[in-house]
Amino acid sequence: MTMPASLPADIEAIIFDCDGTLADTFGAHFRAFRDILADYQVAFDAEFYHARLGLSRYQLLEDLKQTQGKPFDEQAVAERNTAAFLKHLSAIRPIPYTHDILRSQYGRLKLAVASGGQRPIVEATLKAIGVRDMLDCLVTIEDTGVGKPAPDLYLLAAEQIKVDPRFVLAYEDSDEGMEAAERAGMRVIDIRPFYRTDPARW
């Protein structure tokens, strides 16, 4: 789906995914994993990570273990991830395509984020790109316990901003996210034709 010339007239709210949709967090996440895994003498390169962006944290680490054949504690790596990520906030960049949409609709429509990420990371990310205070609500995995492609994150966000899902437009960068928004009864726009991160930078 491509970006419409203008928003549908009946849209009352926009709900954005965070990572890869509002913010390019590839560099921060990559550096965090790289730093932690170095303690286990496990190599972690940008191309490997980029090819597996749709995986959960634990799926990614399991795949890495299978690929390299080196033992490490996935649980320990996951538990250290938030603190490591927060050391690399300077690597986060706003994604121009969605950043411009959010700013243009601030004060006009209800604006929210529905992310499958951990709240401390999502909060820090949104503050890093200067949009946290522009949102009417933020829903993360801690609020539902269920990630995408289940519709729970989007449904809860719509409930909190008091807008019927039929009148919500969602922006996503993954197949799982698009499915989640569609299952919630929302219209959704795939931003991938308009923005892709460049792993070569890292």
Automatic annotation (TrEMBL):
Pfam families: HAD_2 (PF13419). NCBIfam families: HAD-SF-IA-v3 (TIGR01509). This is Haloacid dehalogenase superfamily, subfamily IA, variant 3 with third motif having DD or ED. Gene3D superfamilies: HAD superfamily/HAD-like, Putative phosphatase, domain 2. GO terms for molecular function: sugar-phosphatase activity. SUPFAM superfamilies: HAD-like. Transmembrane segments: none annotated. InterPro entries: HAD-like_sf (IPR036412), HAD-like_SPP (IPR051806), HAD-SF_hydro_IA (IPR006439), HAD_2 (IPR041492), HAD_sf (IPR023214), PGP-like_dom2 (IPR023198). Coiled coil: none annotated. PANTHER family: FRUCTOSE-1-PHOSPHATE PHOSPHATASE, GLYCEROL-1-PHOSPHATE PHOSPHOHYDROLASE 1-RELATED.
